[in-house]
Amino acid sequence: MRVGLYPGTFDPITLGHIDIIRRAAALVDKLVIGVAINRDKGPLFSLEERVAMIEVECAHLTEQTGTEIVAHPFENLLIDCARDVGAQIIVRGLRAVADFEYEFQMVGMNRALDDTVETVFLMAEARHQAIASKLVKEIARLDGDVSKFVTPRVNAALRDRLS
């Protein structure tokens, strides 16, 4: 069984994340969405809320793709999380060249820690390349329309949290 791990903070999950999840599901038998606890980032949504959003937003993808998709919180090293869930592949989404520079460095470090786990990069579709959770939160905080970037449920959760 091929297991992939797609890690991130997902605060909140965006249409860009969902696109990468849908496409990654075609590459593996099981896709684990690693939800980073990362207290340093000061997330808008709690870990439990982010996990619940992922589960709700990805339920239809499991049905569509036939790939098991599960959310898994983690606070340890990414490579240790990959070992914990039995992942042979780490999936990373790329939006721009700046993402690649950071990700390239991370791949090198992860390979030094465990060279049995491969990293696969998926380019975001053009319509999703500008989407970043940080920017979505900022637009929502300033009462802007984020409906192009998140699902209706996530949009409602943002509005509720920020009102």
UniProtKB/TrEMBL annotation:
UniProt catalytic activity: (R)-4'-phosphopantetheine + ATP + H(+) = 3'-dephospho-CoA + diphosphate
Keyword Repeat appears in the UniProt entry: no
Gene3D superfamilies: HUPs (3.40.50.620)
GO CC entries: cytoplasm
Compartment(s): Cytoplasm
EC number: 2.7.7.3
Pathway(s) this gene product operates in, as recorded in its UniProt entry: Cofactor biosynthesis; coenzyme A biosynthesis; CoA from (R)-pantothenate: step 4/5
Keyword Ribosomal protein (UniProt): no
Binding site for substrate: 9, 41, 78, 92
Cofactor(s), by name: Mg(2+)
SUPFAM superfamilies: Nucleotidylyl transferase
Domain Cytidyltransferase-like residue range list: 5-138
One GO MF term attached to the UniProt entry: pantetheine-phosphate adenylyltransferase activity
Site feature: Transition state stabilizer: 17
Functional note: Reversibly transfers an adenylyl group from ATP to 4'-phosphopantetheine, yielding dephospho-CoA (dPCoA) and pyrophosphate.
Family of this protein: Belongs to the bacterial CoaD family.
Record-given protein name: Phosphopantetheine adenylyltransferase
UniProt source species: Ruegeria atlantica
Underlying gene: coaD
